[in-house]
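thought: fold this chain, then report.
action: predict
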Amino acid sequence: MGAEEAAHLAYVALGANLAGPEEQVRRALVELDQLPGSRLLRASPLYLTKPLGAADQPDYVNAVVRLKTRLSPRDLLLALQAIEQAHGRVREEGRWGPRPLDLDLLLYDRDCIEEPDLRVPHSEMSRRAFVLAPLADIAPGDFIIPGQDRCLADLLAACPRDGIQRLASARACEGAFSLAESQPA
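observation:
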């Protein structure tokens, strides 16, 4: 990362329920760490969660990562979509369908962004335990999500946690990349 560019802190949600979902998420962790001008700082444990929408699809594997990046929000979104496509993701009209990989930009610094195809903070994150639980694993409990009047811990406490469980193999994902949070960017 060049000294002339400011580094930004972003949180990205990962989810997969097709084509070996746990492996899809683990591979995506490595790919996020390799984005230009970016470094993966921390990853949550993996969670197994029930799908939204149609119940006739496999359960999801979910996680959240903290990423230091010099990419703009738009460039980061495009990079996330390129990773999804490399994993076989095809964007269709329907929402909440099965997919090999889903990457959502949850937070970018303390910014609030309202564009037709880019909303930060992610519009649904405050009501989704499969996002809030892994986010709480890597962000402070008193963390305030921009645009919310409650801290992360309060949002999570108010969110139903039915159908979400931490995977026993969850800790192994931290070995998939360098977690050198204390090193300079």
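thought: worth noting. Confidence is low (pLDDT under 50) at residues 178-185.
final: tokens above.
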